Amino acid sequence: MKKMNTNPISGMQELLPEAQATFNKLKNKIGEVYHRHGYLNIETPIIDRCDILLAKAGGDTEKQIYKVFKTAETADEADQALRFDHTVPLARYVVQHENDLTFPFKVSQIGRNFRGERAQKGRFREFYQCDVDVIGRGNLPIYYDADVIATLLDAFSRFELNTPVLARISNRKILSGLIAEFNLENKSEDIYSIIDHAEKVPLEKTKSGFEEIGLGSERVTMMLDFMEVRGGREEVVGKLSSMGVQNEMFLAGIREIDTVMGILEAEGYSNAIVADMKIVRGLDYYTGTVFEFNLPEYSQVGSVCGGGRYENLAGYFTDQTLPGVGGSIGLTRLFYVLNEYGLVKNQNAQPVDVAVVPITENELAYATEVANEVRKGGESAMVVALDKKLGDKMAYAAKVAKKCIVIGENEVESCSYRVKEFR
Amino acid sequence: MKKMNTNPISGMQELLPEAQATFNKLKNKIGEVYHRHGYLNIETPIIDRCDILLAKAGGDTEKQIYKVFKTAETADEADQALRFDHTVPLARYVVQHENDLTFPFKVSQIGRNFRGERAQKGRFREFYQCDVDVIGRGNLPIYYDADVIATLLDAFSRFELNTPVLARISNRKILSGLIAEFNLENKSEDIYSIIDHAEKVPLEKTKSGFEEIGLGSERVTMMLDFMEVRGGREEVVGKLSSMGVQNEMFLAGIREIDTVMGILEAEGYSNAIVADMKIVRGLDYYTGTVFEFNLPEYSQVGSVCGGGRYENLAGYFTDQTLPGVGGSIGLTRLFYVLNEYGLVKNQNAQPVDVAVVPITENELAYATEVANEVRKGGESAMVVALDKKLGDKMAYAAKVAKKCIVIGENEVESCSYRVKEFR
Question: Which residues contact B285 (CB under 8 A, 6 or more apart)?
Answer without folding.
Answer: B56, B310
